[in-house]
Specification:
Radius of gyration: 14 Å
Largest sheet: none
Number of helices: 4
Shape: globular
Distance between the termini: 38 Å
Order of helices and strands: HHHH
Number of strands: 0
Helix content: over 70%
Oligomer: single chain
Number of domains: 1
Length: 71
């Protein structure tokens, strides 16, 4: 069961876990809040989620590239 959980977290870009770490709460609670807000706001938080996923992907790419230059 943990393998499936880790696979889903990796494929979902880790946005909820990142936000949970930054806010100091469990990532599962962030996921639940995100689902509730998506129902209330008719899916508009999906745009926010995709923006954060894109930003995290770019940030990791820049860090990886910077580390390769200095090593």
């Amino acid at each position: 069961m943990n393998d499936i959980k880790h696979l889903l977290e990796r494929s979902a870009f880790g946005v909820c876990s990142y936000l949970g770490e930054k806010m100091g709460i469990a990532s599962a609670r962030v996921r639940v809040y995100f689902i509730y807000i998506s129902f209330v706001a008719l899916g508009s938080p999906l745009i926010f989620y995709l923006f954060v996923a894109f930003w995290l992907n770019i940030k990791n790419y820049i860090r990886r590239k910077r580390n390769l230059i200095w090593e």
